[in-house]
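User: Here's a protein and a ligand (zinc ion). What would the complex look like?
Assistant: Let me lay out the input and then the predicted complex.
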Amino acid sequence: MSYSKDIINLAFESSCDDFSCAVLLKNGGGIKILSNIIYSQDFVHSIYGGVVPELASRNHIKASLPALKGALSKAGTALKDVGLVSATAGPGLVGSLLIGLMEAKTISYALNIPLVKINHIEGHIFSPFLGNKEEFPFIALVISGGHTHIYLVKSHSDIKLIGKTRDDACGELFDKVSNYLGFGYPGGRIIDGLAEKGDRNAFKFPLPMEHSRNLDMSFSGLKTAVISAVDNLGGPGKIEDDAVLDIFASLREAAAKILYKKTLDACNIYGINTVAVSGGVSANSRIRSLFTGLEKKSGFKIIFPSVPLSTDNAAMIGYAGYFKPSVDPVKNKEEFFNINADSSWEL
Ligand code: KG4
Ligand code: ZN
């Protein structure tokens, strides 16, 4: 199939432990995902209880060409049809970022295709709108393994941070609790599944910073409260199975409630009733049901990405790539060669 009049966008995402390559198409009918290949490394890191950066980058190297070939072939297209290359340049693990970004730069330079570098968080922020049109302004809640941030988004280029965690990210809280109890990585998904069988009212965990007069959050105190509850019941390995399920359900409830409260506060402060929730933790079923309940009762519009687009993927990077300025490898040679991974790139 040839797409010469349309823009085929080849996108890469490799900021943490997933290597992903996607092909998107933008034409008169909007923006469509033609393919979105994700090589996950959960099995590599699970035994360590978290992502080991050196192992992540080594496995990205192995995945980089198969992911590219798979994405092109699934989309029914070839490199000669590509009109734009997008890649995550930060934030993330520098060794991981470099693999996807350098693959993107190489293709861009060799075939003289403009390159656009994307902030990973920006990819998450707009991911709920993939396939729909953005509705500005909106409040964006980004909840992942490294971020728990609230933004006021007025346009693709006007994004203001208005609240964030002061310590652990919400995904990190789930990952650490799961690890403490020996359930492995990624903890958020494991806890979410097991929490379905527990009683969410069994334990009254604190809602840190619930009444603070700002939009900041904190999750490390909640983590300590959960770990103390586990220890009081005998500790990891000795605690009864039913108590573990209740702890997971009560923890998920406390995390969901605090995220919900702070997001609602943001909506009230800024007079906005459209909310886009994204990032790996947005796959959480209790968070989804709590926010969806808000939509039903009070005229709010709550948008989530589909579950596969909640966790890291290249399609969201390609989507953001259509709205950002690109760099021409020939005309803007100096700027092009200066594009590099930035592990702590802040929006
Ligand atoms: O966005 P993401 O894939 O990577 C980062 O940018 O960090 O998010 C990964 C995080 C991990 O902490 C993982 O435990 C969490 O998302 N996660 C979940 C669920 N699925 C993944 N947390 C809660 N509920 C889930 N269903
Ligand atoms: Zn992410």
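Summary: Residues 16, 144-146, 171, 174-175, 186-189, 192, 279-281, 283-284, 311-312 surround KG4 (ligand 1) (CB under 6 Å).
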